[in-house]
Amino acid sequence: MDTLHNQIGKIRLLFRRDRESYLCFYRILGFFPKDIKLYRQALLHKSTSVRSEEGKLLNNERLEFLGDAILDAVVGDVVYRHFEGRREGFLTNTRSKIVQRETLNKLAVSIGLDKLVKYSTRSSSHNSYMYGNAFEALIGAIYLDRGYNYCQWFMEEKIFKNYIDLDKMSRTEVNFKSKLIEWSQKNKLEVSFELIEQSLDKEFNPMFHTEVRIEGLSAGKGTGYTKKESQQNASHTALNKIKGDAAFRKEVEAAKESHAEKKLAGDACQAVPAAETMEPLPGTGEGPESGENAGETVECRV
């Protein structure tokens, strides 16, 4: 990074009352912030009640949104240059492993963000997304404060060099389908994987197109060179939609309630004992390879 800016930052630091705060961010970033308010806001979970001077509630959600987009671009750039000649599917999967919440949470802890994030005592400290979201918000703050080049430098010099082995990461299996099924089981939702189309790419290799449906609602589509790959990509899209689309989550809940009411009405008509509807689904909770066939349905019962 620009050493002149850092030298100027160190001189200015001598005259700042909040010099410890600037030093804290310097240790994490490798450069001094220009607008430190952005970085402080990046650490505010939505459960806090911090307000601006104008009285507006402050949190890191908008910075997280921005940082998510910038992070995708930066990581995509790094992965593209590192794996020369590899297929799009491989590059997409590798990027997904880096920007997934588990990885971002670990990175946030590694650089010390977990000790700086501010949240309400009413909010669970075990919120699995909190630190990963703060990491994305930090990227958003860097972008607004210093621009894209600083975001790229930070990821390459401070993150990839110290915490991420790209070659090892690319070989790690991340089973998005298993994560989606686990989520659906916890929330007692029905998930199905439908093979909607088969086609050929430009080199006449077979391509599979899968759609994930949750309680009958389309949650995401994915393409791959195998059915498994297309299901994984569709599951990844669905997980992102579940996380980022509150309206869709409400639709799923409404569909779940509607199906439950219809099922109760049907059971009453057939006079089926309640105990018979409470049996666990055979194979529920088995390994990540369970239920790989297209058209399968996973039903999650109490």
Write structural notes for this entry.
- The chain is α+β, with helices and mostly antiparallel strands and 302 residues long.
- 55% of the residues lie in helices and 10% in strands.
- Helix 7 packs across helix 8 (148-163).
- The longest helix is centred in the last third of the chain and has 25 residues, at 246-270.
- The protein has a four-stranded antiparallel β-sheet.
- The protein is flat, with a radius of gyration of 23 Å.
Please specify the SSE layout and strand pairing.
Elements: H1 3-13, H2 19-29, H3 36-42, H4 61-82, H5 88-99, H6 101-110, H7 130-146, H8 148-163, H9 166-171, H10 176-186, E1 191-200, E2 206-214, E3 217-224, H11 227-244, H12 246-270, E4 297-298
Antiparallel strand pairs: 1-2, 1-4, 2-3
Helix pairs in contact: 3-7, 4-5, 4-7, 4-8, 6-7, 7-8, 10-11
Structural class: alpha+beta
Low-confidence spans: 275-295, 297-302
How far apart, in Å, are the first and last alpha carbons? 55 Å
- Please state the average pLDDT score: 82
Which percent bin holds the helix content?
Answer: 40-55%
Strand count: 4
- Secondary-structure element pattern, one letter each: HHHHHHHHHHEEEHHE
